[in-house]
Design a protein that fits this description.
globular, 18 helices, mainly alpha, 80% helix
């Protein structure tokens, strides 16, 4: 425990030192929220990858594939890979060319101030729940590795994450994403290569047709489509990814970074998939699938290398949680607090930006402290208006159809349609149902708005 704790402190200290150096260069709100809009493709690619590649990708995917075969990895990494590619195809250039600071600015410019406020609240609700889930996951990893009480590790996690997220802004986050990404790739690569070296590559081919299938026999076609659509479309519109696109040097940089991050994501994400496929042959009868990756590293790796794998999990979570808190804090300060301040200077803007991150972190910590578990937090975050944000944003970026009431009504419908379709009506494809309902809502209200404008004009 002492060795791991020392390793962890050195690792976290190095990250904090990087952020401290970068903080000296932050002079304006755009420096803080967008890294001065000078981030190159290489760093941006790693940041998009690391932001999305959380502990659930390592622990969740390997466990699901261990239990179900390759179909357990449909959402992550395969679905999220397509999402990153679609981000480059449909969002990157459009959002960068508009020169926004946050996603909330897009909603204000396209649909008006009321839409901006509602969209900002929806984005914040989802972000704070995701942040709480990551706080809890990180504290559990540290607690299980150090034997410290969960409440204590939660407090330690909060102090560190808030300190370096608040200090360094997006550029500090991006540089640390690079460090975290390298550690993550190293840890997973060492584990898979060690197993293949010790067991031989023949173990890879000991798979049944069922375990190599992307579908399971008891699913309907609607369930299959829904389970692909949720990760591909459900995460397409998020402040965490949009802020990175806006930080790019050019629209071409933004688009290339999204494409390259998708390629990197599937390459690295394939490692947990391979580990899960190997699992029944090298480590049969694991009772708790979420313990599979930990048990696998304990069996095949020496203690120092086990620490590296644990460090990879810590890196995966840190790269996600700091992005969530910074992006949410940016929305809170830039779109909800600063409009109430009369003619703020850049110094005042920076102060409120950091305050926004601190407020977001405090709320996320409180939720994490009193929540029953990570799954409930992630599930709740996925319900909060994803379908409405998708429809309103894509229509707003690519067409001039639909105005304020089309957007607001669609947001409200999107907020309630998924939980009703899933838990109330128990539909086989609740996410698709929510998207279709939001699409109908937006187009219907949009036609009413257009006809009303035509009538007034005539």
């Amino acid at each position: 425990m002492t060795v791991f704790f020392t390793f962890l402190l050195l690792y976290l200290g190095a990250q904090f030192f990087v952020v401290y150096l970068i903080s000296k260069k932050i002079k304006s709100e755009k420096d803080y929220l967008l890294g001065g809009q000078q981030v190159p493709t290489f760093l941006l690619m790693f940041s998009l990858f690391a932001t999305w590649f959380g502990a659930e990708t390592c622990i969740g995917t390997s466990g699901e594939v261990y239990e179900k075969g390759i179909s357990g990895g449909r959402a992550d990494p395969f679905g999220y890979t397509f999402c990153l590619l679609f981000l480059g195809l449909f969002v990157a250039k459009k959002i960068w060319n508009a020169n926004y600071t946050t996603l909330g600015d897009f909603f204000r410019n396209r649909y008006g101030e009321h839409t901006e406020k509602l969209a900002s609240v929806l984005l914040l609700l989802s972000s704070v729940l995701w942040g709480a889930a990551q706080f809890r996951a990180l504290s559990q990893v540290i607690s299980s590795s150090t034997q410290l009480p969960l409440d204590l590790t939660l407090g330690i996690t909060f102090i560190f994450v808030v300190s370096y997220s608040t200090l360094g802004g997006l550029l500090g986050d991006i540089y640390n994403d690079f460090i975290q990404g390298i550690i993550l790739i190293a840890g997973l690569s060492i584990l898979i290569f060690t197993i293949l070296y010790m067991e031989g590559t023949d173990v890879l081919f000991q798979q049944t047709n069922e375990r190599l299938s992307f579908v399971t026999g008891n699913e309907t076609i609607w369930q299959r489509v829904d389970r692909w659509a949720a990760p591909v479309l459900g995460s397409l519109i998020a402040q965490e990814s949009v802020s990175r696109l806006l930080a790019a040097r050019s629209p071409q940089t933004a688009q290339r970074s999204a494409y390259y991050s998708g390629i990197l994501y599937i390459l690295v994400g394939s490692i947990p998939v391979l580990l899960g496929l190997l699992g029944p042959a090298v480590l049969p009868n694991v009772a708790d699938k979420e313990q599979f990756l930990t048990l696998l590293s304990q069996k095949y790796l020496s203690t120092p290398l086990q620490y590296l794998v644990t460090g990879a999990l810590v890196a995966a979570i840190l790269s996600t949680v700091d992005s969530i808190l910074l992006s949410g804090g940016g929305i809170l300060s830039h779109n909800l607090i600063l409009p109430l301040v009369k003619v703020p200077s850049e110094k005042i803007k920076l102060r409120y930006n950091r305050l926004g991150v601190l407020i977001m972190s405090g709320i996320a910590l409180t939720i994490a402290w009193f929540s029953e578990g990570i799954y409930q937090l992630v599930e709740s975050a996925s319900y909060l208006g994803t379908s409405g944000l998708l429809i309103v944003t894509l229509f707003g970026l690519w067409t001039s159809f639909g105005q304020t009431w089309a957007a607001i009504t669609t947001f409200i419908v999107g907020l309630f349609s998924h939980p009703i379709a899933d838990r109330g009506l128990e539909l086989e494809s609740p996410f698709l149902a929510a998207i279709i309902l939001c699409l109908i809502t937006y187009t219907t209200i949009g036609f009413f708005e257009r006809n009303r404008v035509s009538a007034v004009t005539n």
